[in-house]
Structures are given as structure tokens and as C-alpha cells.
Amino acid sequence: MPNPLRAMFAAPLIRRIGFHAKRIGGQMDRHFFSSLLSAVVAFVLVAAIAVTLLEPERLTLGGFGTSFYWAITTVIGSGDASYVTSPGGFVVGWVLAFFGVAVVAALTGAVVGFFIDMLLKEGQGMGAAGYRDHIVVCGWNTTARDLIEELHGDEYTTKVVVLHDSERNPAGDAVYFVRGDITSTDDLERTGIREASAAIVFPSDRSNEADMRSILAIMAIEAIAPTVRTVVEANNPGHVDHFRRANADEILVTSRLASRLLARSALYPGLSQMVTDIVSGGEGSELYRVALPDAYLGLSIDDLSARLRGEHRATLLAVTRGGRSMTNPPTDFRLLAGDDAVVVAEGLGELRPLELRHD
């Protein structure tokens, strides 16, 4: 398939239409519609035979083919009225035209009904996202709300899909909403989890039961989309091992993180404000994970830090290699292909963020 055509069919809107068409198609009585189609074809065929017999100059095999074509075009409203000249032919043409009006009205009603049903289902969170390389937010709480605001304020925006069991979209119109259960594979499929770049799981409350549901959600995601990066917020530090056994890629215990940051801030005044500024989007310096140019290969950690600072006004914090971050590499460190860096900068400029895309 040519690339432009492939890109068109990969567009989220087209994929959503395809999802709803498949859903409605599964609810249709196929026997009824096949019988209706057979009746339409038979009616057009009988009309073509009648015109061929009523118009003497059409009484040939080629004339029958032309009559059949004329009957079809008359039904869809583009037939040639001068094709028939006999009174009987006029009657057949009128019947076909009247029948065509009914067919067009029925088709128009079906199309309008389909799009109305689609819009209603989309508004109720019963559709499918149709995105690729997006972020799926499973569950909803105050942390999830802050995360949505942070993603919207980031320099490099990405599509976000929220999966939550509520009647309305809790994240607002800028985020696609799927109503469902975070542990349901069917509902996860509607978020496009197989083609997402990451999934973030939030507990609905601060209870241990909410952690258990988050673990089930991680297991469901790993079962159908093992290549998708999963990040989870945990309530209880004692459940971290359970999340690891469920193959969560990153586990964040917000209470533990907050307590440690508060302790450091008590020892070193102003530390919490600095950390908040670094990890928050908007004005000021921000935290980025970036791909490094090929020209940097072989550099030592000191040379890398100096070039990032001099060429991009970016401060090096760590180098990531094979999924492991090195915040203070040894003196014999040399940058290798595939390494990326974590930096603090006001903007990336010529650098580009690391592309965490679905493969």
C-alpha cells in the first residue's frame, strides 16, 4: 500500500470510524441485509429485462447490458431519461426513479444514524482512541490530574488517553476518554494499548485494595502489550515487590518520595523548590532525556558535559546505557552508540528528546 494511503488509514479518525463500523456490523442481522441486497439486484434485473423487451431497438444481448446499466444509474439518480421512448419504458423509468429515491433516503438515514451513534458513543467514552505512540493513563486521582497538566505544559506534547470508569471525561476535552475497567483487556484494547509508548497506572484511592487493582492492571497490560513501558503509582511501599513481580517497569511510591524530599529540604533549604522547578514544565529549567549526536561518540564524561553546556546550554545530570542511569560515571567512561543523556535546560534547541515509540 502506498505511504500516503497507508497514512490516511492510520489516522486516528479513520481508525475510530472503523472501530464503530465493526461494532455496528457485529450487531446487524446479516441474513436480512443479504436478502435486501438480493431483492434490490433482482428488481433492477427485472426492470432491465422489461425495458429491453419494451424498447424494440434494445432487443439484443448488448442492448440488455446497456439497459441493465441504465437501470442501475436510474436507481442512484443519474440515469438518462431519454434512454426510453415507449410508454412502457416511461413507466419502468418512473418506478426505478421512485425506488431510487427510497434507496437513497434509506442509505442517507443509515449514514446519518451511524455518525450520530458514533458521536454519542464517543461522548460516553465507548469509542476507541486510534492513536499510536501515545500515553495511556489508567485510573484517576489528583496525581493523574496534575500529570495531565504537566504533559500539556511540556515542550514536546504527546497524545494522552484516559481509561477510567466514570460517566464523564475527568481530564477535559483535550484528552481522549475511554470509559472502562483498568483491569479489562477489552477496555485496554480500546485505548490502543498495543501501540502506546507508555502506560501510567494510578490507584483510585489510598487503600491497599487500590494497589491490588493496579497490580491486576499491570498484569493485564503485560499480557497483551509486553513492549509498552509501564509506570505505576503505589500507595504502600510494602507492595513494591508485588509490582516488580507483575513486571512494572517503574514504580513510584509518592508518599516515600515526598517524605525523602521533605527531609532533604529540612537539611538543605530551597532544595524542594529547585527540584519542583526542574521536574515541572513551563518557564525555567526543565528535565529532559535526550538523544546524543553521533559526533559525541567517544567523549569522556567531562568533555560531554562541557560540550552540552557550551553548545546547548544544557547541564548534564546522568548518562543512560542499556536502561541503567549513571549519575557519576568513572573517569575512564567513554560515550558509546545508543547512550542517551539526562539534562537540565531551559529548552532543547537543536537537541531532540529521546523517542520512546511503540515498536
Number of domains: 3
Largest sheet: 6 strands, parallel
CATH class of the largest domain: Alpha Beta
Instruction: Report the total helices.
Output: 12
Q: Per CATH, which architecture of the largest domain?
A: 3-Layer(aba) Sandwich
Classify the beta-strand content into a percent band: 5-15%
Shape: elongated
Query: And the CATH topology of the largest domain?
Result: Rossmann fold
Order of helices and strands: HHHHHEHEEHEHEHEHHEHEEEE
The CATH homologous superfamily of the largest domain is called NAD(P)-binding Rossmann-like Domain
Based on CA atoms alone, the radius of gyration comes out at 31 Å
Number of separate strands: 11
Query: What proportion of the residues is helical, as a percent range?
Result: 40-55%
Low-confidence stretches: none
Main sheet: which strands, in order across?
3-2-1-4-5-6
Give the mean pLDDT: 83
**Secondary-structure content class:** alpha/beta
- First-to-last CA distance: 20 Å
Can you tell me about this structure?
By secondary structure, the chain is α/β, with parallel strands linked by helices. It folds into 3 domains: 3-123, Helix Hairpins (Orthogonal Bundle), CATH 1.10.287; 135-258, NAD(P)-binding Rossmann-like Domain (Rossmann fold, 3-Layer(aba) Sandwich); 285-353, Alpha-Beta Plaits (2-Layer Sandwich), CATH 3.30.70.1450. Helix content is 49%, strand content 14%. The protein has helices at residues 3-9, 12-27, 30-54, 61-75, 87-123, 142-153, 185-190, 208-224, 240-245, 254-267, 271-279, 301-312, and strands spanning 135-138, 160-164, 176-179, 198-201, 229-234, 250-253, 286-291, 315-321, 324-326, 340-345, 352-353. The protein is elongated. The two termini are 20 Å apart. The model has no long low-confidence stretch (mean pLDDT 83).
